[in-house]
Specification:
Shape: extended
Order of helices and strands: EEEHHHHH
Number of strands: 3
Strand content: 15-25%
Structural class: alpha+beta
Number of domains: 2
Strand order of the largest sheet: 1-2-3
Length: 128
């Protein structure tokens, strides 16, 4: 099914639960000066998590970002990271890198090293 553009998944997230289908649509014909668009649809499957007729309720409850806790208006008001579809990817990346938010960002920390029996034994010997 994946070769045909159909992927079925099960989510157990903060707001999205149950079975979902990710469906790839047919590519649009290329227009002069534009690249081919590869569009996808995410569709809720009918299962025990599906709540018929309550989509408006779910949207009214989910007014904030799961990641930041801010509303869309708050995010938009403070965002300097704007992606412009009429620019190339390289131009967008350069512009975003120059933004104040990117300049304030700290580099990610390296993941913690996994403790092995040898490192634990070495620490015990050095502590003794």
């Amino acid at each position: 099914d994946l070769k045909r553009g159909h992927l079925k998944i099960v989510m157990d997230g903060e707001r999205m639960h149950g079975k979902w289908a990710l469906i790839r649509l047919r590519d649009r014909e290329e227009r002069p000066g534009r690249k081919t668009r590869h569009n996808w649809l995410l569709i809720k499957e009918v299962d025990e998590e599906a709540k018929r007729g309550s989509a408006g309720d779910a949207l009214a409850k989910a007014l904030t970002s799961v990641k930041t806790g801010r509303t869309l208006d708050e995010i938009a008001a403070k965002s300097r990271s704007v992606w412009n579809s009429n620019r190339s990817t390289a131009d967008n990346v350069k512009a975003l890198a120059k933004s104040p938010a990117a300049q304030r960002a700290k580099p990610a920390k390296a993941p913690a090293k996994k403790k092995t029996r040898k490192t634990v034994a070495k620490r015990r010997r050095s502590d003794a």
